[in-house]
Amino acid sequence: VNLRLASEPGADVEAEEAAAKAAGIRYFHVPYDGSADPKAADAFLRVIASSGAEPAFIHCAGGNRAATMWLIKRLAIDHWDVDRATEEAIALGQTNIEIRKFAIEYAQSHRR
Predict the structure, then answer these.
(1) Torsion region of 8: left, alpha or beta (phi above 0 gives left; psi -120 to 50 gives alpha)
(2) Spatial separation of the C-alpha atoms in residues 48 and 44, rounded to whole Å
(3) pTM passes above 0.85
(4) SS3 for 79?
């Protein structure tokens, strides 16, 4: 799952998709700019909950966005408690406190 915007320097979305397909790997592009974006969170949850999506390699440029989306998944789908999921997200590179708050609030209102 590629969270990078196609416009980001070094984000060659088409080449990454082609390489994944050539390797027989399912590829998803969920552009996420790192803001409090419920549409990106909705799209990520649809992708990660789709049949055959896991194990998953989820990436952005630095880790913050990927860890934020993973935090949402842990809370909304896996039903982890907030402290455990937040601790994991921080360990994975989630650094933005405001976006962390968004992720927790979003996930709690979108539990599956």
Answers:
(1) beta
(2) 6
(3) yes
(4) coil
